[in-house]
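thread: overnight batch results

M.L. [08:02]
morning all. the overnight job finished for the chain we discussed friday. pasting input first so we're all looking at the same thing
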Amino acid sequence: MQICKICQEPTTLFYEKKREVGYFRCKVCGFISLDDTHVVQEEEEKKHYAKHNNSFESTGYVKMFENFIEEAIKPYLSNLHTVLEYGCGHGPVLAKLLSQKGLNVDLYDFYFFPEKIYEKKSYDLITSTEVFEHLKDPMLVLKTLVSSLKTNGYLILMTQFPNKSEAEFLKWWYIRDITHISFFTPKSFEIMAEKVGLKVLKTMNDNVVVFQKC
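M.L. [08:03]
and the structure it wrote out:
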């Protein structure tokens, strides 16, 4: 049995038979993680990311971020000046859209913008979209982000919340991406927030959570 990476409670193991992979689901917070033995190596992961059409040429991708800004960021825009876009990928569309709003945006991505520019800095807003589902140690990353967030600053994450039943989860399109290994429920985010000095302001659209640093 594996303990939950979020709340250290017991998990149950269930299988996706077609691909012969296992998932651990927390009995308390609902967090689901891929069995670590099936996590792809960094070289394969980077090649997979490089295939993504994450650019202004992809109108659907741009529209997703325009909606994200309108719904999740705009309510706090008057309080924002500095932003860290954490996990921006090779085509930092969101960063450019935020820059167009007059914000000063720094970029970080493990593969494509690896300089840890956020160290010894603090930000009014940190965004991390479609990143946390790729993380093997999400609590460690969350602590890192909180350390670079100003008091009363905002952390806004985008990641798809998992379907409720295991049967539905195993049919879910989101798990077909070989680099998606961590799946968070609103309750798991509440527990994570409490551990690192954040509060959850709201969750939205089954894929966005807005935190504020206490």
